[in-house]
Amino acid sequence: MSQTYERLKQMERRINEEGFTTPTGIGSEIPHYVFDYPAEDELIVRTYLEGVSKRTSIAIKEIHLFQFLLSLFEEDLEELIEISEEEGYEELVHALQTVLEDQDVVVETFVDQAGEAELVFITGVGNAHPLLRSSQLLKKLSNHAFRKPIVLFYPGHFTGLELRLFGILHNEDQYQLSRIS
Q: Range of 109's domain?
């Protein structure tokens, strides 16, 4: 069995521990975790996550970052496609960044999608890059005191201080994360 699969099993045991979704104690901080893995193990992770929600009694919501990004622009997709075709990629990115910099819109949409979940899995990080970076989203959620634990499934490497998408891109912002397994 692959190392990623074994770590996924450890992660599943951890999220099912009593108190995982309701931290107590001084400050009662709601933790954000990262599950980093080699990008070539993406299908192992996807397949495993499909089974986790069926095996647990925890209400888990998976938010795929690229689908989340599309939901932010649902009413403007045709216009964005037109911008991309007529003015190019740079103008498209500029148009998207204007909305993505609005912290309230991003956080409100995320909170709506998370709904009543006890735990949120963030997936699709590589699909959304570079338009929406996971560390930027986590910072916005933290600034608005999002009170649910999050596990970020990250196709790359977490050094303990920084995220390196696909193990090579070094431009993710630093963010307070803990490795879950």
A: 30-179
